[in-house]
Each structure stands twice: as structure tokens, then as C-alpha cells.
Amino acid sequence: MSQERATVHLPTSVGYLLKEASSALRSAMEAVLRPLGMNVTHYSCLELLAQRPGLSNSELARGAFVTRQSMNVLLVALERDGLVSRAEHASSGRALPTELTPKGRRQLATASAAVRAVEVRMTASFSDVERAGLGDLLSRAVSSLRADHPTA
């Protein structure tokens, strides 16, 4: 008895291609961040704090796609290195808001330029219309998946 199974054609599978692009992007970002003494999670944390000062450990973890425990370890290191500051006492609840220090802003500026160069290289063969379209398509894909599973 032969059992047929649905197969995924990897060269045209949108999910596989997205994963491959994500992996290639992360590798390229790690390569430019490593000489700066950073990794993608470190950079993501600083970028999130620059754009949304005062985020809690949990909010930073969600935004950087890591566990709260991993983010806490990173925040302790960033605070020790003088890149972020955290309030000693929460103004409400238990969350300690975190903010970038001037040193953290300087490190972020250097890292952002390096990461931006990777993004420019990644989309160098795209027209402006294609670049905008890709952003729109990816945003819509994320929205569609999150609509089906709101906790994602």
C-alpha cells in the first residue's frame, strides 16, 4: 500500500525561504556586530530602548524574541557596562523600567549604522517599489498569522 504525502518544494516554499532569509540576515548582522562586542539580541535590546524608553524586562524579552531570564542576564551585563540604567524601585507594580545611558546611545549609533548597511546590502537588487512591497507583504503576513493566534 503506497501512502502519498504532501511535500513541500523547498525552493518555492514561502516559509522555508523566509527562514533561510532570516538565518542569512542574522548571520550577516552577527558578523558586523561581533567586532563591536555585540550580538543581535544585545543590539535589539538597545534599539528597542531607544525607540521605547522605559520598557520592562518582559517587554524587552518579547521584542527581542528571547526569554525573560535571558533578557534579565543581558540587562545585568548592559547595566554593569554602563549602557543602560534601571530604576532601583518600580514606580508601579514590579517592573523596573530600563533606559539607555549616553554611552549606550553611542554604542547603538555605531551598531545601527552597521546593521543598516546589512539591510541595504540585502535589498540592493530591489527597486524602491519592490523594497516597499516586501515590507508591506511581510507586515501583512505577520498580521495574518497573529490574527489566527493572538498570543504569538
Summarize the structure.
With 152 residues, this protein is mainly alpha-helical. The protein has 6 helices and 2 strands.
Q: Which stretches of 5+ consecutive residues score pLDDT under 50?
A: none
Quote the CATH topology of the domain at 22-88 and 95-119. Arc Repressor Mutant, subunit A
Indicate the structural class: mainly alpha
Question: Could you give the distance between the termini?
Answer: 40 Å
Helical content class: 55-70%
Instruction: Characterize the biggest β-sheet.
Output: 2 strands, antiparallel
Q: Return the CATH architecture of the domain at 22-88 and 95-119.
A: Orthogonal Bundle
> Approximately what portion of the residues adopt beta-strand conformation?
under 5%
Strand order of the largest sheet: 1-2
Give the overall average pLDDT.
91
Task: Give the CATH level 1 class of the domain at 22-88 and 95-119.
Answer: Mainly Alpha
GO molecular function: DNA binding; DNA-binding transcription factor activity
GO biological process, one term: response to stress
Pfam families: MarR_2
Protein name: MarR family transcriptional regulator
